[in-house]
Write a structure and sequence with these properties.
The chain contains 7 helices and 7 strands; from the N terminus they run E-H-E-H-E-H-E-H-E-H-E-H-H-E. By secondary structure, it is α/β, with parallel strands linked by helices. The chain has a single domain, classed as NAD(P)-binding Rossmann-like Domain (Rossmann fold, 3-Layer(aba) Sandwich). It has a 7-stranded parallel beta sheet with strand order 3-2-1-4-5-6-7, with helices on both faces. The protein is elongated, with a radius of gyration of 21 Å. The N and C termini lie far apart (about 70 Å). Bound molecules: NADP nicotinamide-adenine-dinucleotide phosphate (NAP). The site of NADP nicotinamide-adenine-dinucleotide phosphate has 29 residues, from helix 1 and helix 4.
């Protein structure tokens, strides 16, 4: 299904493509024949990934240093992709991140930073790609979000931003469908990616968290990348405005994050009607 010429002639931009899920997606898109450009803030993530991905794909993969929160940098990044490669058919909005915090101690600055990256940043590059290329020629956009349907304690800022991205995606899907632009979101559950190294040591007990997933394991980065590649390929050609959950059943069962029980737990007294003995 993901044969090596299925995306031949297409140009893909993957934000956060130097690490984790983004790097796996860049590699898979490249192996499907697309010309791939990765973009993120740190040259220290982009430069080694460009070399490593080019080796793995067997063709050059390109890199641009760009902070998606900076609208001028985003416009310049999109312009550079189109000027250099002639088009921009696929955008994977994967760049993002957050810090874990109980909601009551998230500072205004912390809230703004997480929303700027995970909502406004994704909007910035989506609108820039649409205006510079996709609304005139068609295109496919996939947003990587997170599990948003249930409570996600410790992530109030990020889950709000990601739910906003999904809602934005549904709206853009309708506004832009007749212009040949499709936009979908992928919600990963627990993914075994380098991203977990960004959290303080011990922030997550990943071994324990795996118990809470019906499939009893984390996803691989390729299992997320595969869904993204399906959605942007011709096989996903009639899918737009959807959110695909890739979580091993996690959102159907189990806890994302353990909230302590009150002590002592209240007694449970099963009620009787007053006329019962
Ligand atoms: N791993 C999971 O279990 C999981 C679950 C649900 C959702 N997700 C989401 O999936 C995405 C990828 O996660 P991952 O696990 O692969 O972790 P990761 O390695 O931390 O990936 C995040 C990527 O985003 C880039 N990035 C962060 N801020 C950026 C900005 N302002 N502008 C441009 N790029 C930026 C980072 O590169 P720079 O530092 O170079 O900017 C990095 O390459 C993230 O949005 C993450 O929150 C992950």
């Amino acid at each position: 299904m993901f044969r090596d010429d299925v995306l031949a002639g297409q140009v893909a931009l993957v934000t956060g493509g130097g690490t984790g899920i983004g790097a796996a997606t860049a590699r898979m898109l490249g192996r499907m024949g697309a010309t791939v450009v990765i973009a993120s803030r740190k040259a220290s993530n982009i430069e080694p990934a460009v070399a490593g991905l080019s080796r793995q794909v067997g063709r050059p993969v390109h890199g641009i240093v760009c902070d998606i929160r900076d609208r001028a940098a985003v416009d310049a990044c999109v312009k550079s992709v189109i000027d250099t490669h002639g088009r921009l058919d696929i955008l994977v909005n994967n760049g993002g991140g957050q810090f874990l915090s109980p909601a009551e101690v998230i500072t205004p600055k912390g809230w703004d930073a997480v929303v700027a990256t995970n909502l406004t940043g994704q909007w910035n590059i989506t609108q820039a790609a649409a205006n510079a290329w996709m609304l005139g020629h068609g295109g496919a956009i996939v947003n990587i979000t997170m599990l948003t349907a249930r409570g996600f304690p410790g992530m109030a800022h990020s889950v709000a931003a990601r739910a906003g991205v999904e809602a934005m995606g549904r709206t853009l899907a309708v506004e832009w469908a007749s212009r040949g632009v499709r936009i979908n979101s992928v919600e990963p559950g627990l993914v075994n990616s380098s991203g977990f190294r960004r959290y303080p040591e011990g922030a997550f007990d990943l071994r324990e968290l795996q118990r809470r997933v019906p499939m009893k394991r984390m996803a691989t980065v390729d299992e997320i990348a595969g869904t993204v590649c399906f959605l942007v390929s011709p096989l996903g050609g009639y899918i737009t405005g959807q959110t695909i959950v890739v979580d091993g059943g996690h959102s159907l069962w189990g806890d994302n994050w353990i909230v302590p029980d009150p002590e002592p737990l209240p007694d449970v007294v099963i009620p009787r009607e007053e006329w019962e003995e």
